[in-house]
């Protein structure tokens, strides 16, 4: 478990940091100027190894869970990040999505986090999907899929309440849970499809909404050619692209570099893919130089140890 947790924590930070300098660059630009390692400055003018909101809010989520699940405390941890740069790579915020910013402003002003998140259709960016990885570990021993869905819904809903965002997070968490059990990538993908489709068939969710994830849930996303893949900041696109990168590559390095070089929302695609790849391959199979060079490397390792200890304690109670 420690290998997987530490791999996932460094995995998200490294993927995020690889993508930060080239966020918004096109796929054609990156095919001619591919990212192969950490670069600096670029669109956010940050030094090499700097992660953004994706990893920061993931670490805030983990930090909160160490003290037990409390949606109000978790939301306040997010506010600490937004206002004071808590868990920022350099203790400051340089990148925050519109939906996340508005939601955290509401929380800071006293809105209950159970109703703070954006619920309009246009508020379906990837801002809750990107921070979901610790939830998969937290829910490892929760055998009731409906309870897992409800908790994912609450955690996503701090910033993103629309069903489309929640479903994207739920699919990702179910996939990560399957990976933790040691399944191969294709087997974990099939297990996720079976579990999610069985659950959805027993609920009265809007079929038109579920259809947005048809390529993930009913088809094999790995068989798509990349011209049919859109690596934008839209939650459906990010989930599709991240799963595609993971299922089409054979190691962590290739997975995150493939994600970055798809262009668009480079840091989040690589963060979501990188968390899953880091979990799957484990810390020992991540490039050692990247682990050392990523911002807050020592603190990330310590957080991963504390978080894994909490998860292990919970699983033995």
TrEMBL record:
Molecular function GO labels: hydrolase activity; metal ion binding
Keywords: Hydrolase, Magnesium, Metal-binding
Annotated coiled-coil segments of the chain: none
SUPFAM superfamilies registered for this protein in UniProt: ADP-ribosylglycohydrolase (SSF101478)
UniProt keyword annotation of Metal-binding present: yes
Residues annotated to bind Mg(2+): 52-54, 265, 267-268
Cofactor: Mg(2+)
Claim: ATP-binding is one of the keywords in the record: no
Comment on bound cofactor: Binds 2 magnesium ions per subunit.
Family under the similarity heading: Belongs to the ADP-ribosylglycohydrolase family.
Record protein name field: ADP-ribosylglycohydrolase
